[in-house]
Amino acid sequence: MKLQMKIAMVLGALALAVTPAMALASQPTNPGQGDGQSNGPKYTPEGPKTPGPGASLPEKAKAYGVYCKDQSKKHVKGEKGTPFSQCVTAMAKAANNEKLTPSKACKGMSKKHVKGEKGTPFSQCVKAAAKLRKDQQS
Q1: Residue 138: which residues within 8 A CB-CB, separation 6 or more?
Q2: Which residue has the higher pLDDT, 99 or 55?
Q3: Distance between CA 130 and CA 111 in Å, rounded?
Q4: Calpha distance 88→106 (Å, rounded)
Q5: Of 34, 41, 133, 45, which Cα lies nearest the Cα of 92?
Q6: 63 by DSSP, 3-state: which?
Q7: Per-residue pLDDT, 75
Q8: Which pLDDT does position 2 carry in this prediction?
Q9: What's the whole-model pTM score?
Q10: Counting runs of H as helices and runs of E as strands, what totals does the chain give?
Q11: Hey, which of 14, 20, 104, 135 has its CA 20 to 30 A from 47?
Q12: In the Cβ-directed half-sphere of 81, how many Cα atoms lie within 13 Å?
């Protein structure tokens, strides 16, 4: 064999022998133990606070619209706002006042059955407020 080939084989064997040692050297000493040296993102559980009942409707809709998604967004003659907007306001009241029951938070909603809808706007709101309370506790 030529000298160049011998040198190439020796260098290749050394490279293969050193690779596992270099991989182990870059591992943390206690993975998953929270040693503060990890390069991953830091999680802080504090999120944005939910808006109160006095906040503007777009702010409340972003936060509570999930719970009121089954409510109608069509205006009912003689009612103040749509069932959806009334539900969103009721969710804000229920979320920020623990003493207020879901039925009291939704008391201004219509109890008339809407054709094609499941339940009344009031009953849908009470269900949504109860779900909101359950989600807040967990």
Answers
A1: none
A2: 99
A3: 17
A4: 10
A5: 133
A6: helix
A7: 83
A8: 84
A9: 0.54
A10: 5, 0
A11: 104
A12: 14
